[in-house]
Amino acid sequence: MAATAFYRSTTTGVRIRIDDENATLNLSGDPARPNLVRVTELAISYKTTENLNGTTPNNTSEVTDIVYVLDHEDTRVAYMNPDHLSQPNQWPAWVREQADQHSPHPCTQTANSGATTQGAAWHAVWLHCDWRWLTRNMSTAEREYVADAVQGYSDLLAAHNGVNSSEPHAELDGLRWWRD
Q: What is the overall mean pLDDT for the chain?
């Protein structure tokens, strides 16, 4: 069967711990009589679409959901009104900043960019887990394989963020601990 994919859509999410006392949400909804509650976590969902027609991929990413975890005993969770999701200029500035900072990078969404789902997954594991503990029972070949995936993905992110790709990108500290 001859078939050609011309559109791809993926959803991703991020959960962020907020350690800033100034990150608050007005539960009253009335700016004249605010009921400010501290936000301790923020969960943001994104939908990334890729138009596979033509030679230049057309990627877009949009916020599809924002959930606030609150430091309030009666109201633990609040959700952004779906009507406001398409109006980031109406969001609190700190929410807009977090949404932009954690937005999926285009290089993570396209297979032809060299980034792989596996590289992104191993990179997340390296960032958020005890890397030494996780890899200690792997063979050296397995360790090298996953370390290459992590470093390759890190290099792609660095290039995406404007790091000069003609200069060598430093290897992540502690990535290949078995060589120390």
A: 81
Predicted confidence band of residue 60 (pLDDT cuts 50, 70, 90): confident
CB 61 within 8 A of CB 69: no
Q: What is the DSSP letter of 2?
A: -
The token pair at 162 is: 């404007």
- The pTM of the full predicted model, rounded to 2 decimals, is 0.54
Chain-centroid distance, C-alpha 28: 30
Alpha-carbon distance of 29 to 105, in angstroms, equals 33
Task: Look at the block and give the residue holding tokens 């993570």.
Answer: 108
For residue 14, the SS3 value is: strand
Q: How far apart are CA 144 and CA 135, in angstroms?
A: 10
Tens-place pLDDT, residues 73-116: 888 999 988 888 888 888 888 898 888 888 775 444 333 344 45
SS3 at position 125 = helix
HSE-up of residue 84 (Cα within 13 Å, Cβ side): 11
Q: Which amino acid does the sequence have at 175? A: L
DSSP helix/strand/coil, 44: strand
- The C-alpha angle with vertex 114 and arms to 51 and 101, in degrees rounded to 5, equals 70
